[in-house]
Amino acid sequence: MPAITPPFPRRSAVVLAVLPLLTLTACGYGSEARSDDTAKVAPGAEKIDGLGSVKIGYFPNLTHGTALVGRERGLFQKELGATKAEYATFNAGPSEIEALNSGSIDIGWIGPSPAINGYTRSGGKLLRIIGGSASGGVKLVVDPKKIRSLKDVRGKRIATPQLGNTQDVAFLDWAAGQGWKVDPQSGKGDVTVVRSDNKVTPDAFRSGSVDGAWVPEPTASRLVSEGGRVLLDESSLWPGDKFVITNIVVRQAFLREHPKAVEAVLKASVEANKWINAEPEQAKRAVNRQLADDSGKALPADVLDPAWKSVRFTDDPLAATLGTEAAHAVRTGLLEKPDLKGIYDLTILDTVLRAEGESPVDAAGLGTS
């Protein structure tokens, strides 16, 4: 399937300005779309907006726990009626954004930096953020034999998941706050930033080729299980210990044409978060079952338990923190100042929340109206 074709400015986005979009197998992106075979369609259920299916994307990652629970418990299928819930999983934000652009998925769970990239690189035409999903779950884990304090990070090799991704931006901004100089493209400077896929970072840490990593869960807890020590929890750097790590995004065309389907997915998302927060132990096990189904392997307890405790699930997109994260990217030299006005459309989410007796959420001045 084709990549995004409009002639976007070279430095209009964090990752997509410096990385090629990923071309993957199956539909062209991520894993092959699959129907939710475990969820039964209720007798007499009708298709929403006449749609045969709604295609949902997410990462097989704890910070995407809302989507994992929604799928594992059949919540998306329940709300969609006879319209099939189909799924695709991704390992990187750029590939999910490309799938959204191509129409390979309609709605997706994704991190803030890719959402900013997709919005700004398309001139504000590709996506809207329609809800929140998770906060926190990011840590700086180090080799305690090499790094005993924050000042010891200087001169060391620290892994981040990907050039310009959410954690890469956060680490570069934190390093700049320490007064250290690092070239954002090469990662070289007073501290060396090693861009390393989360799947291989534990091996790199074990071999000593990196001295630490600024990574999301469950990678952070995997490193701890390998003898690492949490030196810093990113939540401690944010007001109220809250910052957005996962959003829900939708193609703008799909939002315009099928608002009832979008509402159904958001109802399921709100129900999933409500259950996660009410039954955290059951939810943890449900997430692990879906992770095992998606990746072929469940997380061991010594990784799952501490990782789960550090992620907060919320319907609030924490919009003010998205603006701050964009400012961090600008400050580190990975992003020109973006116009994010209109990136949020929380109208349907607020309708769903009010029906649940909950308060509406704030777009922090970045909404469509």
From TrEMBL:
Signal peptide: 1-28
GO cellular component: periplasmic space; plasma membrane
Main location (coarse class): membrane
MF annotations from Gene Ontology: ATPase-coupled transmembrane transporter activity
InterPro entries for the chain: ABC_SsuA_sub-bd, NrtA/CpmA_ABC-bd_dom
Chain segments annotated as coiled-coil in the UniProt record: none
Matching Gene3D superfamilies: Periplasmic binding protein-like II (3.40.190.10)
Entry's localization field: Cell inner membrane; Periplasm
Alphabetized UniProt keyword annotations: Cell inner membrane, Cell membrane, Membrane, Signal, Transport
UniProt similarity note: Belongs to the bacterial solute-binding protein SsuA/TauA family.
Protein name: Sulfate ABC transporter substrate-binding protein
Source species: Streptomyces malaysiense
